[in-house]
Amino acid sequence: MNSLKPAAYDTMYNRRPSVKVDRIVIHTMEGSFAGTIAWFQKAGRPVPTAAHYLFSRTGDVCQMVADEKKCYHAGSTTARGWNDRSIGFEHEGYASQVEWPEAMLVASARCAAVLCRKFSIPVDREHIVGHVEVPGVTHTDPGAHWPWDRYMDLVASHGNK
Fold first, then answer.
1. Is the separation of the CB atoms in 141 and 49 below 8 Å?
2. Distance of alpha carbon 143 from alpha carbon 94, whole angstroms
3. Is the bond leading into 101 cis (omega within 30 degrees of zero)?
């Protein structure tokens, strides 16, 4: 199932027009697909975070923020501009898990391939990064066991279709 469930009104902002989208940031939800959707739809949170796309363990996709909008998913005080220049992908699960469902990886990789074409984002690890790789963040997702080689192969293979 692919769906659009907009995040809360106070989580979406206009991107700075001079900034080109050139990154996809990979996150883990640290919880469930349904719980994360509900959280991102709740307005008035102290830190109004959201992500553009959410991926369930079974391969369901939910878009919560339009590609043309920015949301706070990758920022820190030392990573200024990362929310303007990136699309956020949240994956159901935990940074500590060891295995990742193939259906979720395929759904995410397909979406990443489409966005890489749309925004001319190179399919490489400089441009598709883990949240942990954003400068100054204190997060560890997607975790030490995220299958980067498999994921990047999937993105590349779907980019050729």
1. no
2. 8
3. no
Token pair belonging to 33 = 């697909």
- Cβ pair 68, 129 in contact under 8 A: no
CA–CA distance, 137 with 145 (Å, rounded to integer): 19
Coarse DSSP helix, strand, coil percentages of the chain, rounded to the nearest 5 percent: 30, 20, 50
- Closest among 78, 16, 71 to 47, alpha carbons compared: 71
At position 90, the amino acid (one-letter code) is E
| pTM higher than 0.85 | yes
Phi first, then psi: give them for residue 52, nearest 5 degrees.
-70, -45
Task: Using the Cα atoms of residue 122, residue 124, residue 128 and residue 133 in order, give the sign of their dihedral.
Answer: negative
Tens digits of pLDDT across the chain (161 residues): 588 899 999 999 998 888 899 999 999 999 999 999 999 999 999 989 999 999 999 999 999 999 999 999 987 655 678 999 999 999 999 999 999 999 999 999 999 999 999 999 999 999 999 999 998 888 999 999 999 999 999 999 997 76
